[in-house]
UniProtKB/TrEMBL annotation:
Protein name according to UniProt: Cytochrome c5
Gene Ontology molecular function: electron transfer activity; heme binding; iron ion binding
SUPFAM superfamilies (UniProt xref): Cytochrome c
Keywords: Electron transport, Heme, Iron, Metal-binding, Signal, Transport
The Cytochrome c domain, residue ranges: 53-134
Residues annotated as signal peptide: 1-22
Organism: Glaciecola punicea ACAM 611
Coiled-coil features, chain-numbered ranges: none
PROSITE patterns (alphabetical): CYTC
Domain of life: Bacteria
Length: 134
């Protein structure tokens, strides 16, 4: 019985140590494994810096981030431009609260929906597109 207890203590200690190590700051590791340079092929054009494409329309944002759930109503998401699904939300909460919920996340929808590079105004434009005509 003492052997089993001893083994249990050793296993628990190993788990605790593994969790502690996993939570440590990885900045030193990332510094050690970062690339030391970049390769430029002779005759190839140099890489261009990413240029912002400018403001996106609500329809563009919807197509890139919202359509997967809002086109068919995944997990209760209100379907795009379906008055029966949007109007009760708008009547109960108002547009500003619906917008805030989209920014903060609500139910199964994570904060900012599925748009990792959207601003608050982008989210507003996408909602305005989804409720267009309602």
């Amino acid at each position: 019985m003492k052997v089993k207890a001893f083994i249990a203590v050793i296993v628990a200690s190993c788990c605790f140590i593994a969790v502690s190590i996993a939570q440590e700051d990885n900045s030193a590791l990332l510094e050690r494994i970062k690339p030391v340079g970049k390769l430029q092929i002779a005759g190839a054009a140099p890489p261009q810096a990413a240029v912002a494409a400018g403001p996106r329309s609500g329809k563009d944002i919807y197509a890139g981030a919202c359509t997967a759930c809002h086109a068919i109503g995944v997990l209760g998401a209100p379907k795009t431009q379906v008055s029966a699904e949007w109007q009760p939300r708008l009547d109960e909460k108002g547009f500003d609260q619906v917008w805030k919920n989209a920014i903060d996340g609500i139910g199964a929808m994570p904060p900012m929906g599925a748009c990792g590079d959207c601003t608050d105004d982008d989210i507003k434009a996408a909602i305005e597109y989804m409720i267009e005509g309602i």
